[in-house]
Amino acid sequence: MRRKLTRRDMITGSAAAACVLVAPRRARAQSVTLNDASELNPTPVARHWIVKGTPKTDFIARLRAELKAAAAEGRPVAVSTARHSMGGQSLARDGVAVSLMDGTCEPNSQSRSYRATAGTRWRDVIATLDPLGFSPAVTQSNNDFGVSGTFSVNAHGWPVPYGPFGSTVRSIELMTADGAVVTCSRSENSELFRLALGGYGLLGVVLSAEIEMVDNVLLAPSYDIIPSADFAPRFIDATADPAARMMYGRLSVVREDFLDEALLTTYRPVDTSDPLPPPEFGSAAKSLARRVYRAQIGSDRGKRMRWWVETVLRPHASSNRATRNALLNTPVALLASNDSARVDILHEYFVPAERFGDFVALCREVIQVSRQELLNITLRYVAADDLSVLAYAPGPRIAGVMAFSQRKTPEDEREMRRLTQRLIDGVAALGGSFYLPYRLHARRDQVERIYANAGAFAAAKRKLDRKLIFRNALWDAYFA
Prior knowledge:
This protein is α+β, with helices and mostly antiparallel strands and 480 residues long.
């Protein structure tokens, strides 16, 4: 059913959930153990429901039944697509795990939008829009992430001059804890929309979303190598260029001149009368990129080689042109590690442009003395977010996306926690913030300091989900 959610419904729930016609089929009586992208969160769950090839009406009926059963059993429920988070944000201990394995994408050329259902991944969206000449306005950085998961963490991408993904979402269908299906947007059930956007699945299950799309175009990059001290003003000026469609920066992680040099890459349209190529990269290019990236571990020579490839070899390559869709259509596996003793861990910090130099100085001071192996810092522009209750970019920000290769040892985990907390304290002093989908290493007081609406978010969640059906490790760590 689709209807306007009243305030009474939001507080007391809907009686419609009591009319459940389909009882949940039980999985094996014994629990199973699931993990996420960190490989450091083995979590027992009572039931694991894998949703694949299920008609929407059947899925909704089964989901309602699962929510009702979980409420009766006092179990939490966590719904996810691929569990790419790193701190158990998609896992509920001893609860019900729902894994969405597929979905659909329905474009509407007249409205320049598409509707993606639960389980749709970005590769599905790109495959659907590309033949029609369209491209998603904003995606996450990899094509195997789920669209509903992107909404739940309100991720940002590297198309400019956009804010986080939520700025391109027109409306969603959300199943709340009582089994009601409601439409939410900026004008309809707006309070619930703002809570669910970047709400980490704690307000309900995103069944579908209507999202803006743009023209797919052929793009050519320009490369500027500049001192990191000069990066921020150049970066912000470049975002004001109406021809700039996609843009990112990168800092050199070579130990000898750590973070001294920056690369600014800007993509602009190229006129062509030829048909646009399909959104694919060759396997040879992928293999080379992975080998160069992994060669950095424990090797300053490897780090220098990677920086040379980025700043010298790539700018002179003959095949730099790519469509917008091709640039967005890369999988996580492109740079994945095969070393079972290590795992790639991400951090992400958001700082005002005028404090970017101080951010670089902080990173030099804190990261160099840690035991952690830094492989990459990518820089992106994020426009202000005035929608999400848990906004990480209340004003325009430069995002620093860090990738570390961490050993899977207790000592390295403790060191990573110390490093994270030192970086968060430093970024907070600069008026910046950190991102919540990664390891839950922040102290609770740090979360409350940086996310000023954390208390209001938790209070609203308790009113809307009185039995706390939707829970995960992030809730337990920071809001419980």
